[in-house]
Amino acid sequence: MKFLIDADIVAFKAAASTERPIEWDDGLWTLHAYESEGIEYIHNYLQRVTDVIGQGEFKLFITDPTNWRKDILPSYKSNRKNTRKPLTLSPLRQYMIEEMDAVMVEAMEADDLLGITATSEPDCVIVSEDKDLATIPCQLLTLQRMKQYAQSLSLKLTTSI
Q1: Domain tally for the chain?
Q2: CA pair distance 120, 100, nearest whole angstrom
Q3: Which domain holds residue 106?
Q4: Which residues contact 113 (CB under 8 A, 6 or more apart)?
Q5: N or C: fewer beta carbons within 10 Å in the chain?
Q6: How confident is the model at residue 73 (pLDDT cuts 50, 70, 90)?
Q7: Contact 136, 126 (CB under 8 A)
Q8: How does pLDDT run across 132-161, given as a tens digit for each residue?
Q9: Is residue 69 a part of any domain in this protein?
Q10: DSSP structure string for the chain
Q11: Residue 108 belongs to a domain
Q12: 145 is a domain residue
């Protein structure tokens, strides 16, 4: 069984959850994050998925910074333009590409790559929290489904996925 991982979500959650605000004595606030904590989060996330769904081949997919949809509709996802991204998002994405062989294809979103792979290769399951992937004719394992499956096996998820 191949588990196709939406690595965009994993990287974002890893980066966002490891940021820490600090208030200094003079009222100055700074934000910091350790890349190593984000890397640990990624590995723990994948281990928790394995604990619930069992062993299999993991294939991670990441969105390329360029996007063919923006050529057609420049306002595509423009509502996110002024939203701050977590500090370590870029290095964590790069880590997954370099160290975990995450797939990134020029001008393609992870969603597209997940859909193409899931419908062209046998025995694939997409693992993602993105509700848009429910439109792809394949098996989709969401966070909710993983929790339900774990409960049916009487497993307790001690940390969130």
Answers
A1: 1
A2: 22
A3: 2-152
A4: 61, 103, 105
A5: N
A6: confident
A7: yes
A8: 888 888 888 876 776 666 666 555 544 455
A9: yes
A10: -EEEEEHHHHHHHHHHHTEEEEE-TTS-EEEEE-HHHHHHHHHHHHHHHHHHH-S-EEEEE---SS-HHHHH-TTTTGGGTTSPPPTTHHHHHHHHHHHH--B--TT--HHHHHHHHHHHSSSEEEE-S-GGGGGSSSEEE-HHHHHHHHHHTT---SS--
A11: yes
A12: yes
Candidates 97, 112, 37, 22; CA nearest to 67 is: 112
Per-residue pLDDT of 52-67, as tens digits, reads 878 889 999 999 988 7
CATH of the domain at 132: 3.40.50.1010
Q: Which of 22, 46, 144, 40 is nearest to 102 (CA)?
A: 46
Quick one: pLDDT at residue 40? 97
* Domain assignment of residue 7, yes or no: yes
In the numeric block, the tokens 């928790």 are attached to 48
What span, in angstroms and rounded, lies between the C-alpha atoms of 121 and 145?
22
**Strands lying side by side in the sheet with 124-127:** 57-61, 2-6, 124-127, 139-141
Angstrom distance (rounded) from CA 146 to CA 126:
12
